[in-house]
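The instructor's notes for this session suggest beginning with a concrete chain rather than abstract definitions. Hand out the sequence below and ask the class to guess, before any prediction is shown, which regions might be ordered.
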Amino acid sequence: MMTTHPLRRNLGLDLVRVTEATAIQAGRWMGLGKRTEADQTAIRAMLNGINDLDMNGRIVIGEESKVGTHSPLDSGKIVGNGAGPEMDVVLDPIDGTNLLVHGRSGAISAIAVAPRDSMWSPYPAAYMEKLVVDREVAHALVKEALDAPAAWTLAMIARIKKKTIRDLVVFVLDRPRHQDLIEEIRMAGARVALRRDGDIAGAILAAIPNSGIDVLMGVGGSAEAIMAACAVKALRGAMLTRLAPQSPEEHRRVIDAGLDLSMIMNQNELVRSDQVFFAATGVTDGMLLDGVTYAGGFAVTHSIVLRAKTGTKRMIRAERLLEDMFDHEDAYTHSPAASQSPFDKEPTHAHHPTE
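After discussion, reveal the predicted structure:
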């Protein structure tokens, strides 16, 4: 007979300890230009942290389809110590690795969990189209909005928020694929907040009233979409998504997997439970969270913790002693074996996005 484990109310606080530790480890690579080392450090830190938690977790969707490399945090991997409830997990040790290694703003570390089989998995899709608004506009975000001209959607948002379209700010990833979208937004009269990476933070900002971001539009990672849906649901915002393959190879993989390219899903279909916990910690300074600072043997972190059932949002500043924290990580990262680690192996179906 299977033993069931009740969800603890403080599970979000357990998760934020993991993102704090990951952000502290990752932040040491800021501006050094070493993407592989930063990724490996963050992945190992998050894996070590989450495997200490009382849960039987399964990663719903990882990053391997998008980034083209395997890691211990691939889709389907089991995490946690196995002693707690069965959970779906989606995580990103560093959302915005390029931001981190080039010393730019907006990199975060994030995790979300929900009861087993409640998260929809878009695997092997790497990219999804997204539209995110806050709770003030949520009631009006019908699925047809994802196919509507940007000007129509922006006019609707402006009317509900009692703003002019010129007052609106739209978060869009700065990618060649968004050139037409950006021009359409500008022609409608709205302002555009372009960011190279970090659409998890962008989605959260769009879902938080009066954050400075009114809406997120465009195509981003599928793993980030599921994680964003967890946060948006907790914040009582609204989100629309649809698969958006960015290469013929990805299109073929999605069709072969039997996924429907025309299906539009909202946050409640992406995550079919109210027992959702989300945590994120800033790695570098950004619009959502401050980055890690180091001084006198301590690190200071800034995090957000969300619980969907109660709609609770906590902003947490924490100070952590750094003693012995980096010894294991430095020994791994700088060892000769690091260059032959399983992180660098090519997956069977890798997709390398064109920037």
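Then share the key points. The first strand starts at residue 56 and ends at 59. Residues 328-355 have pLDDT under 50 and may be disordered.
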